[in-house]
Amino acid sequence: MATYQAPLREIQFVLHDVLNATARFGEAGLADATRGTVDGVLDEAAKLIQERIAPLNATGDAQGCRFRDGAVEAPAGYAEAYRLFWQAGWVGLSAAPDHGGQGLPYTLSKVVEEMVCSANVGFALYPGLTSSCFEAIEANGTEEQKRLYLPKLATGEWTGTMCMTEPQAGSDLAAVKTRATPNGDGSYALEGGKIFITSGEHDLAGNIIHFVLARLPDSPVGIKGLSTFVVPKFLLKPDGTPGERNRVRCVSIEHKMGMHGSVTCSMAFEGARGWLVGQPNQGIQNMFVMMNLARIMVGFQGLGQCELATQNAIRYALDRRQGKAFNGGEVIADHPDVRRMLLTMKSVTEGGRVLGYETALHVDLAAHHPDAAVREAAQDWVDLTTPLVKAFLTDSAFELGSMAVQVYGGHGFIREHGIEQIVRDSKILALYEGTNGIQAMDLVRRKLMLHNGRLPKRFFERVQAELARGGADGADLGFIERPLRSAVQELAAATQWLQESFKREANDAGFGAVDYLRAFALVMLGYNWLRMARAAARAGDPALRDAKRVTAEFFATRLLPQAAALCGIVRNPAAPLMQLPATRLQ
Questions:
Q1: For residue 248, what pLDDT is reported?
Q2: pLDDT-flagged residues of the chain (< 50)
Q3: Which of 87, 267, 417, 469 is deepest in the core (most CB within 10 A)?
Q4: What one-character-per-residue DSSP string does 201-230 give?
Q5: Distance CA 211, CA 172 (A)
């Protein structure tokens, strides 16, 4: 069975030694998030997650969710574990105290989320979508809606959903058909069906609050005619407690490749009463408040699965004896090809952790920093890196899960070891909240073009500033500085080519987007590994210093050079490849 141990030393290294997060929290007015508080919170979270949530991962996968007569029963132990989780305050860690939360940094909530996603990613979706629903109502709801729903969502006593997808409307939300008709009393009657609704029905909470995308009768066609509504499973009584059952129900649940502990529902809205959130026909703008943070959330799900795959592969490789290595070693970790896989997993996971945490940190700075210029720069960073967090970390989860199976050999293919579950659970991460191809197009078609290319320009300036430090702190890091400098030049050239070619031929961006995103992510991880190697050299811990240096050198010599090849691929015109009629592809 796959097991999980929270990597607290690694987490603290990234937060404190690489990102200097608590100082940045202080600059942003989040003074309560001292180093002592942060470390104490993470220590307590790790205990609960390891002891109560991680043991449910294998059993939840085996049992799945049960659907009977419109009701859903989560796997055994989930309801009890979820009650412990929300009552201990983990769901509302970063929610405002005015709404029942603890007011700690968003970054800290994401670190806890990473741990939950390593321990049991299926379980993590119940509080995860609840936080997203909270964020959407907080951003666009009326004061009355906030009063009614936010305190219960903040604590997690009630859970939330995001109801967008319909059978004919997956990524193309312009095709949404669900209708919302005024009832004449300020409420609306919603009619329609939604599919792939995570946590749409279950037995973990006293109420489920659906955040629903629908059309008003007089709305324009297409994406500009969508509005958002809050639709509770149980209508609220005057005192705010759940009362009569609303006319929304689960008609079936999906039988999935993985994520068996998380229920995915088809929902029927049959005249369900809902209330408009925000202005009419502003639904897409409202949803993307929720969606953008949800994409970061999914990236952290990927990071959690990367960590789970990596630590189990390393643990197994240090124990498994098979053959004699060239260096005389007797465990498979001493075989060069196995060592290659382990270092790939380690370098991607640890470099990806900096990517995820730094994006979360900039969410905090963009929301709270008193300096408008800092807030603007932080928001630029969030906008630029969100597609990297979502796409690269989730692609990596699937790839590293497969690599962990390879390390285990035939034992990895056997269900009892729990490693193949990582592969099955991780694949959905590249699909929901916008497929990773959509993330790549968002990066290329939007983020590179915003503000006349300001976002990537600021990134390149940051990396160049770090490279300019050289050996100022006494560490000889030329082994990574040289390939990073070259990779940055290649990425800058590919960026300029895309910015210019997009104006002439949009298909160039479409064909090159996925390769470009991966190249960008590799350069970003190179930047991260330069900083990690530098921080480890300062830390005064020889074991940490040596491990980081070797892993950084592996990344610099084996993975970072791939960025130049990918950038070369990106700069090929797509026109010849799009001329063949699609019907000729058969």
A1: 98
A2: none
A3: 267
A4: S-SSSS-EEEEEEEE-TTPPSGGGGEEEEE
A5: 18
* Token pair 């659970």 in the structure block, residue: 425
Report the C-alpha gap between 570 and 562 in whole angstroms.
12
CA distances from 149 to 141, 240, 248 (A): 10, 9, 18
Strand extents, DSSP E, 59-114:
66-68, 71-73
Q: What is the tens place of the pLDDT at every residue in 509-524?
A: 889 999 999 999 999 9
Structure tokens at 562: 């791939």
Alpha carbon of 553 to those of 154, 354, 361, 545, 566: distances in Å? 43, 17, 27, 12, 20
Q: Which residue has the tokens 């699965």?
A: 305
H/E stretch holding 274 reads: strand 264-277
d(CA 23, CA 29): 10
Segment 129-161, tens digit of pLDDT:
999 999 999 999 999 999 999 999 999 999 999
- CA-nearest of 268, 250, 344, 276 to 306 is 344
Cβ-contact 202, 164 below 8 angstroms: no
Cβ–Cβ under 8 Å, residues 195 and 165: yes
336-368 helix and 283-319 helix, angle to the nearest 10 degrees: 150
> How far lies 49's CA from each of 5, 42, 287, 573, in Å?
9, 10, 30, 49
Q: Which two tokens stand for residue 501?
A: 């070619």
**What does the alpha-carbon distance between residue 387 and residue 148 come to, in Å, rounded to a whole number?**
33
pLDDT at 508: 85
The answer to whether the beta carbons of residues 66 and 195 sit under 8 Å apart is no
b/e map 6-29, b = 16+ CB within 10 Å: bbeeebbbbbbbbbebbebbebbe
166 labelled catalytic: no
Specify the DSSP element, H or E, that contains 294: helix 283-319
Contacts for 373 with CB less than 8 Å, ≥ 6 apart: none
Residue-level pLDDT at 473: 67
Which tokens is 168 given? 């004919």
Quick one: DSSP state of residue 194?
Answer: E
DSSP assignment letter at 258: S
Amino acid letter, residue 563:
A
Residues in the chain: 586
Angstrom distance (rounded) from CA 217 to CA 191: 12
For 530, phi then psi, to 5°, come to -60, -45
Supply the pLDDT for residue 323: 74
Q: Are 65 and 78 in contact (CB under 8 A)?
A: no
Please name the residues in contact with 36: beta carbons below 8 A apart, sequence gap of 6 or more.
none
d(CA 453, CA 173): 28
Distance CA 186, CA 204 (A): 30
| pTM, full prediction | 0.96
For residue 235, report the phi and psi dihedrals to the nearest 5 degrees.
-65, 150
The single residue of 138, 433, 481, 490 carrying the catalytic annotation is: 433
Close Cβ partners of 44 (under 8 Å, ≥ 6 residues apart): none
Distances (CA, A) of 512 to 223, 450, 451, 509, 571: 26, 19, 22, 5, 7
Query: What's the chain's Rg over C-alpha atoms?
Result: 24
pLDDT of residue 487: 98
Instruction: Name the pairing type of β-strands 234-236 and 226-232.
Output: unpaired
Question: In a 3-state reduction of DSSP, which class is residue 332?
Answer: helix
